[in-house]
From TrEMBL:
Exonuclease involved in the 3' processing of various precursor tRNAs. Initiates hydrolysis at the 3'-terminus of an RNA molecule and releases 5'-mononucleotides. It catalyses: Exonucleolytic cleavage that removes extra residues from the 3'-terminus of tRNA to produce 5'-mononucleotides. One of its GO terms (molecular function) is nucleotide binding. This is Ribonuclease D. The gene is rnd. Residues 211-290 form the HRDC domain. CDD domains: RNaseD_exo (cd06142). GO terms for cellular component: cytoplasm. SUPFAM superfamilies: HRDC-like, Ribonuclease H-like. InterPro entries: 3'-5'_exonuclease_dom (IPR002562), HRDC-like_sf (IPR010997), HRDC_dom (IPR002121), HRDC_dom_sf (IPR044876), RNase_D (IPR006292), RNase_D-like (IPR051086), RNAseD_HRDC_C (IPR048579), RNaseH-like_sf (IPR012337).
Length: 364
């Protein structure tokens, strides 16, 4: 029978964290709810150090400092699986990003696994243990939690620790452990960057189709929606759907009836109609048209060369070509090569640079 401690008081959390201080590595996971909200609502924390496994109830804890001290201790490795949303949770609730994060999904990708390999899939492959994933869509904010929920949550860290030990051992043997560490560090840096209101328009689908003056309106509209969603803790599309926002920027309606014709419902018209018309009434500063990769004259040349290089490197190293090069890497390189970006692209730095630089710089 799996044994775990359920922590629901400041005293118990402080005592548990005292034991964690001497640990070399911790398996961590979070359960949260985020259906209609801007921010994730933390519902449960799971921690396992190889001896003690705890389920921490955040709804009953006031003093998080002992736990934050653990997160900030860079002598302790923190093991996650697919950590991007966990990082957002920690940033939101504890105002910090855990130090020394390793992501099992990233480590596994250096062993020719798909980039988005699931936790249960990896546990089955490397530990020969099949996990029950039936509680994936459960309500984690309900209290009391059921025994099945607690078992599911505990298993998410119970097997993560031996999985990470196995992955690290295999990566040490194939020579890519340091590269995997570097990839985790870079991923955490990217995922720790908070989205900004004035860049929200870049996330609107098909924004690139709009002309500069229309993009100016979209930038204002998306910025307003972003700030409203943050202030009222609402999911962006629950304020106004991005498709409607795009249409407002495209057609610049001048009346409530025109807003309605573009898809806004009665409640949205009452709440936001006058505000949106006011935004659209003001002259908009043109915004430079969003450049797509295909807009660069040398797009086909470099895209083909980089992908062919990735296939060649994949054959030699055994690394997944999807890990070696993504759409983001190609876009970064094109922007840098065409002087739209001064910082060297990822494909020319770090472990990727050692593999790609001689090919790409030679052919530049």
């Amino acid at each position: 029978m799996l044994s775990y401690q359920f922590i629901n008081s400041d005293v118990a959390l402080k005592e548990f964290c005292t034991h964690l201080q001497i640990s070399n590595g911790l398996a961590l996971d979070t359960e949260f709810m985020r259906t209609k909200t801007f921010y994730p609502c933390l519902a449960l924390l799971q921690v396992y150090d190889g001896i003690n496994l705890a389920l921490i109830d955040p709804l009953l804890i006031d003093d998080w400092q002992p736990f934050v001290d653990i997160l900030k201790n860079n002598k302790i490795e923190k093991y996650f699986h697919a950590c991007s949303e966990d990082i957002e949770v920690f940033t939101r609730h504890f105002d910090c990003v855990p130090e020394n994060i390793l992501d099992s999904q990233i480590l596994a990708s250096f062993l020719d696994n798909p980039l988005s390999s699931g936790y249960a899939t990896l546990v089955d492959k490397y530990l020969s243990i099949k996990l029950d994933k039936s509680e994936t869509r459960t309500d984690w904010l309900q209290r009391p939690l059921t025994d099945r929920q607690c078992l599911y949550a505990a298993n998410d860290v119970l097997y993560l620790l031996p999985l990470m030990h196995k992955l690290k051992s295999l990566l040490f043997d194939n020579g890519f452990l340091n590269a995997a560490y570097e990839e985790c560090l870079n991923a955490v840096k990217r995922r720790s960057q908070s989205p900004q209101a004035d860049e929200a328009y870049l996330q609107i689908k098909n924004a690139w189709q709009l002309r500069p003056i229309q993009l100016g309106y979209l930038k204002k509209l998306a910025s307003w929606r972003f700030e409203y969603a943050k202030t009222h803790d609402m999911a962006l599309n629950f304020v106004i759907h991005q498709d409607i926002l795009w249409s407002l920027a495209r057609y610049q309606p001048k009346s409530l009836s025109e807003l309605s014709a573009l898809g806004m419902n009665g409640k949205q018209l009452r709440l936001f109609g006058d505000t949106l018309l006011s935004i659209l009434k003001k002259a908009s500063e043109p915004v430079a048209q969003i450049k797509r990769m295909t807009d660069y004259p040398d797009y086909k040349k470099w895209s083909t060369l980089i992908k062919e290089a990735a296939e060649e490197i994949s054959m030699k190293t055994g690394l997944n070509s999807e890990l070696l090069v993504s759409k983001r890497h190609i876009e970064q390189f094109l922007r840098w090569h065409n002087h739209d970006m001064t910082e060297q692209p990822e494909i020319l730095t770090g472990w990727r640079g050692k593999l790609f630089k001689r090919i790409l710089i030679k052919d530049e």
